[in-house]
Amino acid sequence: MERIPVIEIFGPTIQGEGMVIGQKTMFVRTAGCDYRCRWCDSSFTWDGSAKHEVEWLTPEQIWQQLKQLGDDRFGHVTISGGNPALLKGLSALVTHLKEKGVRIGLETQGSVWHDSFDDIDDLTISPKPPSSNMETNFATLDMIMDRLATHRGRVSLKVVVFNDQDFSYATYVHQRYPSVPFYVQVGNDHIHEADDVTLRLNLLQKLEWLVEQVIQSKHMNDVCVLPQLHTLLWGNRRGV
Amino acid sequence: MERIPVIEIFGPTIQGEGMVIGQKTMFVRTAGCDYRCRWCDSSFTWDGSAKHEVEWLTPEQIWQQLKQLGDDRFGHVTISGGNPALLKGLSALVTHLKEKGVRIGLETQGSVWHDSFDDIDDLTISPKPPSSNMETNFATLDMIMDRLATHRGRVSLKVVVFNDQDFSYATYVHQRYPSVPFYVQVGNDHIHEADDVTLRLNLLQKLEWLVEQVIQSKHMNDVCVLPQLHTLLWGNRRGV
């Protein structure tokens, strides 16, 4: 039985980001990442700080936990990380969830292909901008976007933007894959801010800035600009 | 030349609602409505208060105003109201905009069919809940949703929710048309609140309530819960 390292399972809640913003869903967060983004809001998935929380679970064990939490109150499951595309056991989980009749969302940075991408209903590829300190391998990303051109579900690109340089990067990515639905998202650089009001107003101010960048750019006409809805709602808390 | 009554044209900005949330777009707001929703945030389109602002414009005149405002910085136009479906001249405008190569979004309450619905790329049908004091004619809505079953663009239903009764109504609408992507949206009952911080925090609190209703309901598993993004950003101001 193939097991995958799971760091948290929670829900029902709503999706906070990108093409699936607002979607009622359950979350399965896998451990392990090939990236180390400077501003990662889930660094506990890779920095060792939540090592003791990682459980190696079979698809059926994951399903049991989902049912226990969500009972008959969910129809959509989001697999997030970390980078779930690193996990060989992902295919078995995706197959199992499909058999149970739920729709599946998955988010990954587009650094690695995984055959199970083909079976994801809502697939978000989120390459990381310069502020992350990571470097995009565009040869790999090209290959992935090429293979996704015939995808049967919904596919989108999403770039988090913290500053002007990130916005240039987002523009470049959108122009490189112009036919793929494109989302720019406000970065949260107050990941340790405990005061929700301060955080909310700060994020909305940043969103206003990002909207203005998009409005002014003739290269960003067919894009969506979004906040992280869960951060506006629940601040930096985990498990919601 | 067919003219339509236009009450404001503005943009580029972003869409604040539903399936097109965050989408960069221009707005053409038409005058006149068959409804009188109690909490309407655009009552100036029908209550006579902005009568002097109404201009009867040809499709080319509308296009010229869009170009003047948006130049080469837009690729999407939203037609909103009032209820644009009431206007015979709508077809000519939609045809003209299509010829110019822009994508078109349109929102209407689903009280009247219009042949130009077939040519809309992003069509939102937004029946009004009990708190509006309006009554839905479900025979008409059935007919409209039936005709839209073979629509080539994106179609969704959106219901604004202010209270428990509205939420029951939303649940009913979703169950009546289960295959149509469904959005519930937080109502803004502070349409005269001038203080943006108060308004923002109030809306986010309401959003949290609505998310909780959706989480608890087994009939609302495949839905999206969203705020009005433009109200979070810009409060009750017009023309943004």
TrEMBL record, chains A, B:
Cofactor note: Binds 1 S-adenosyl-L-methionine per subunit. Binds 1 [4Fe-4S] cluster. The cluster is coordinated with 3 cysteines and an exchangeable S-adenosyl-L-methionine.
Alphabetical list of SUPFAM superfamilies matching this protein: Radical SAM enzymes
Catalytic activities: 6-carboxy-5,6,7,8-tetrahydropterin + H(+) = 7-carboxy-7-carbaguanine + NH4(+)
UniProt: S-adenosyl-L-methionine binding residues: 39-41, 82, 126-128
Pfam families on file: Radical_SAM (PF04055)
Record: residues binding Mg(2+): 42
PROSITE patterns in the record: RADICAL_SAM (PS51918)
Class of this enzyme: lyase
Cofactor: S-adenosyl-L-methionine; [4Fe-4S] cluster; Mg(2+)
GO biological process, one term: tRNA queuosine(34) biosynthetic process
Annotated EC: 4.3.99.3
Residues annotated to bind substrate: 14-16, 29, 80
Single GO MF descriptor: carbon-nitrogen lyase activity
Annotated binding of [4Fe-4S] cluster, by residue: 33, 37, 40
UniProt pathway annotation: Purine metabolism; 7-cyano-7-deazaguanine biosynthesis
Keyword line: 4Fe-4S, Iron, Iron-sulfur, Lyase, Magnesium, Metal-binding, Queuosine biosynthesis, S-adenosyl-L-methionine
Residue ranges annotated for the Radical SAM core domain, each copy included: 20-236
Family indicated by similarity: Belongs to the radical SAM superfamily. 7-carboxy-7-deazaguanine synthase family.
Assembly and oligomerization: Homodimer.
Function comment: Catalyzes the complex heterocyclic radical-mediated conversion of 6-carboxy-5,6,7,8-tetrahydropterin (CPH4) to 7-carboxy-7-deazaguanine (CDG), a step common to the biosynthetic pathways of all 7-deazapurine-containing compounds.
NCBIfam families cross-referenced by the UniProt entry: Bsubt_queE
UniProt name for this protein: 7-carboxy-7-deazaguanine synthase
Organism: Anoxybacillus pushchinoensis
Gene giving rise to this polypeptide: queE
